[in-house]
C-alpha cells in the first residue's frame, strides 16, 4: 500500500466535487448531454453520491461526487472518501470550489481511504489515485497519513504477533528510520532501575515487560510523549469476562498513537526535541501476578493499593510519567486506552482529554476541527481527589462506586506530574467500531493530528 499522491504531471481525469445546495446552479452550467445524463442517473449531489460522466466512444470523461448538505457534512468526516472508494482505476484531479479546510480534509481522507490491513488476508486496493490539489501541503498530508497507518497497523495486529518484544521492534524500527536514539530496559532490570509498577504489571507474562525510550532532535522545546503499551490485557487475577477481553489487542492503542504522532513530528522535522516513552507489558495471570490489595511503591515514591488488577494501565503510565517529569519537559503528553468510563461519557468517536493549561486547551479546540480529529475536554476535577485516596496507601488504583471513572484515572496520573509546566492526558478508544469513510472497522488513531496542529501555537514553533 502507498499513501502518497499521484505525480502532479500525471495524466488524470476530472472529479467534480459539488455540494447539494450548489448542485442546481452547477448543473445549469453543464452541457445539455451532461444534464440529461445526470438526471437520468438520479444524481443529486447527496453525501457520497458518485456519477461517472461518459465521453467519446464510451470512454470515461470524468466523474461528479456529491458532498450532501451542510448538515450531512457536519454529521460525518471525509465525505469525499466515499466516492474515492468507488472510482475506477486511474489518476484523478479535483474540480471544486472548496474552502481550504475542506480541501485539506478531502485530500487526507482520500489517502486514508486507501488503508487496508492485509497482513493476514488479501484486500482489494483503492484503485483511484489523487493528484494533490493546488493549495494543499502534499508532503504534510502524506506524513499525516503515514503516521496514521503506523498506528492502525500496530493496533490491528493481534497479540500473538504484537507482544512487548514485537512492539519494541516496531519502536526501534521507527527510531532507525529517523536516526533517533533509543534505550530499552527489560525484565528484572526494571526493578534495578526503579520502575516497580511497570515490572509488577508485566512480570506474570512469559513475555518480559520493558520500558522503551526514544529521543530525537537536538534543539527547541522538549516534548515528551508517553503511551500505554499493554499489548494484551486479561485483567490479571481480576480476570475480564470474555466479552470484555475480546478487543484487548487494542490496549496498546496509546503506544500506537504516540508512535504515529512521533512519526509525523519527525517526518515533518518540527523544530523541537522529542522523547517517546512506552511501557510495554502484557497483563497476564500466573503465580507471581500482582494481587488485589497488594500495595506497590511507585518510582515517584507514592504507594498504590491495588484494588483491581484490571486497572493496570495507570500503573505502568505512572512510572513512565514520573521518569518523564524528572526532566521537566515543556510539554508532557500521555495517551492511553484507559477507561470504559470515557467511552460511556463521549462514545467511540471523540477523544476526551484533560489539562490544566488554558492555552493548550484553546489550541486543541481551535485546531482539532481542521485536523479532522475531534477531541473533547473533560475536567481534572480536584474535589474527586479523595476518591483515589484509600487511607491505607497514598493512592487507590480502582476506587469503588463507579462514578467519574475517567476523571479519577486522570487525577491518578496527574499525581505523578509535578515539574512539567504543561501536561495533557488523552483517554482514547483507539478503535473504529464500524466502517466509516477513510476509517475502516479496526484500529484508529485519535488525538494525534489535533495535538500536532496545536504544537506551534503552544510552543511558539
Automatic annotation (TrEMBL):
PROSITE patterns the UniProt entry points to: CYTOSOL_AP
UniProtKB keywords: Aminopeptidase, Hydrolase, Manganese, Protease
Single Gene Ontology MF annotation: aminopeptidase activity
Domain Cytosol aminopeptidase: 308-315
Signal peptide: none
Membership in a protein family: Belongs to the peptidase M17 family.
UniProt-recorded name of the protein: Leucyl aminopeptidase family protein
Lineage: Bacteria, Pseudomonadati, Pseudomonadota, Alphaproteobacteria, Rhodobacterales
Amino acid at each position: 500500500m502507498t499513501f502518497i499522491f499521484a505525480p502532479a504531471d500525471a495524466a488524470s481525469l476530472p472529479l467534480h466535487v459539488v455540494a447539494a445546495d450548489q448542485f442546481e446552479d452547477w448543473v445549469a452550467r453543464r452541457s445539455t448531454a451532461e444534464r440529461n445524463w445526470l438526471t437520468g442517473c438520479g444524481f443529486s449531489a447527496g453525501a457520497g453520491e458518485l456519477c461517472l460522466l461518459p465521453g467519446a466512444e464510451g470512454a470515461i470523461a470524468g466523474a461528479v461526487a456529491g458532498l450532501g448538505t451542510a448538515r450531512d457534512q457536519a454529521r460525518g468526516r471525509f465525505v469525499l472518501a466515499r466516492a474515492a472508494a468507488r472510482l475506477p482505476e486511474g489518476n484523478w484531479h479535483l474540480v471544486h470550489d472548496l474552502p481550504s479546510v475542506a480541501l485539506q480534509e478531502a485530500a487526507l481522507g482520500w489517502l486514508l481511504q486507501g488503508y487496508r490491513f492485509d497482513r493476514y488476508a488479501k484486500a482489494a486496493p483503492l484503485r483511484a489515485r489523487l493528484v494533490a490539489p493546488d493549495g494543499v501541503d502534499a508532503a504534510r498530508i502524506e506524513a499525516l497519513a503515514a503516521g496514521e497507518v503506523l498506528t492502525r497497523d500496530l493496533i490491528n495486529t493481534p497479540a500473538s504477533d504484537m507482544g512487548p518484544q514485537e512492539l519494541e521492534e516496531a519502536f526501534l524500527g521507527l527510531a532507525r528510520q529517523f536516526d533517533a536514539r533509543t534505550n530499552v530496559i527489560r525484565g528484572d532490570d526494571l526493578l534495578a532501575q526503579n520502575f516497580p509498577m511497570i515490572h509488577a504489571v508485566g512480570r506474570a507474562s512469559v513475555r518480559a515487560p520493558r520500558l522503551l525510550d526514544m529521543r530525537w532532535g537536538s534543539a527547541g522545546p522538549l516534548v515528551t510523549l508517553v503511551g500505554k503499551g499493554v499489548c494484551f490485557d486479561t485483567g490479571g487475577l481480576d480476570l475480564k469476562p470474555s466479552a470484555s477481553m475480546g478487543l484487548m489487542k487494542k490496549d496498546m492503542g496509546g503506544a500506537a498513537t504516540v508512535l504515529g504522532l512521533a512519526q509525523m513530528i519527525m517526518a515533518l522535522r518540527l523544530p523541537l526535541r522529542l522523547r517517546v516513552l512506552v511501557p510495554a507489558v502484557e497483563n497476564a495471570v500466573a503465580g507471581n501476578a500482582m494481587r488485589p490489595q497488594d500495595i506497590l511503591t511507585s518510582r515517584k515514591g507514592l504507594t498504590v493499593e491495588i484494588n483491581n488488577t484490571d486497572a493496570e494501565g495507570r500503573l505502568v503510565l505512572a512510572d513512565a510519567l514520573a521518569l518523564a517529569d524528572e526532566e521537566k519537559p515543556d510539554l508532557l503528553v500521555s495517551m492511553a486506552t484507559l477507561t470504559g468510563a470515557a467511552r460511556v461519557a463521549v462514545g467511540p468517536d471523540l477523544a476526551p482529554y484533560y489539562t490544566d493549561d488554558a492555552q493548550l486547551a484553546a489550541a486543541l479546540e481551535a485546531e482539532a476541527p481542521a485536523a479532522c480529529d475531534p477531541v473533547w475536554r473533560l475536567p481534572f476535577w480536584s474535589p474527586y481527589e479523595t476518591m483515589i485516596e484509600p487511607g491505607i496507601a497514598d493512592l487507590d488504583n480502582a476506587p469503588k462506586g463507579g462514578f467519574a471513572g475517567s476523571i479519577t484515572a486522570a487525577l491518578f496520573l496527574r499525581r505523578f506530574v509535578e515539574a512539567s509546566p504543561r501536561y495533557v492526558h488523552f483517554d482514547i478508544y483507539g478503535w473504529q467500531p464500524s466502517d466509516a469513510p477513510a476509517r475502516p472497522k479496526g484500529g484508529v488513531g485519535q488525538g494525534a493530528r489535533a495535538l500536532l496542529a496545536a504544537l506551534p501555537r503552544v510552543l511558539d514553533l
